[in-house]
Design brief:
2 domains, Immunoglobulin-like, alpha+beta, single chain, three-stranded antiparallel beta sheet, about 190 residues, elongated, 3 helices
């Protein structure tokens, strides 16, 4: 099998790992995590020439639901099939919510954060910004599978009642442009 650039592949050609890598490098496909160092089905240890099956595609490339695709798990995929089932949406934690917990009462400020994660996605990077302008500051790196965080050191960072506290979170292995964002105001009921 001759390795080609992604753009040179015909739509009905099977796709080797090196061609998938070229598609990722040109922005046509996205790795679901990072490029795999080895591929379990590659018995010859020649991953550049290894043709992707549906299972490989689902394991390594960001994709949409393939349950109704008609492509068998071990069946090799063509360029056209990969284009049909690819996803270019950034991988970010979902349902990100920030709520001011007013039960602590002034002057203590506490924000409760929660989100959903995809399984086995690795660590999460969390950042905070006080107010609507300025830069985000690193807050913490959270362990894989973490779905909540309590930020109760906000006043030490200069926040006061009336401030909007902004947060953003991403999978640490994703580009620093792929964030889920949420915010809430600091206030206490009268």
């Amino acid at each position: 099998m001759t390795i080609k650039l992604w753009a040179a592949l015909a739509s009905n050609e099977l796709v080797a790992h090196a061609e998938v890598r070229d598609a990722v490098n040109t922005g046509v496909l996205l790795w679901d995590y990072t490029e795999p160092a080895t591929i379990p089905g590659d018995l010859l240890n020649d991953r550049d020439h290894y043709c992707y099956t549906r299972e490989d595609f689902e394991n390594y490339v960001r994709h949409t639901d393939m349950s109704a695709s008609g492509i068998a798990t071990g069946e090799m995929m063509s360029k056209a099939e990969m284009l049909l089932y690819r996803s270019l949406d950034p991988a970010v934690p979902g349902s990100f919510v920030v709520l001011h917990d007013d039960a602590t009462g002034p002057p203590r400020i506490r924000m409760d954060l929660s989100w959903t994660v995809q399984p086995n996605r690795g660590t999460l990077t969390l950042q905070r910004r006080i107010g609507d302008v300025g830069n985000y500051s690193p807050l913490t790196v959270l362990a894989q599978g973490t779905t909540s965080y309590v930020d109760d050191f906000i006043e030490a960072a200069g926040a006061v009642e009336g401030d909007r506290i902004h947060y953003r979170i991403r999978y640490s292995d994703q580009p620093a442009t792929h964030w889920a964002e949420s915010s809430d105001f600091v206030f206490w009921p009268i």
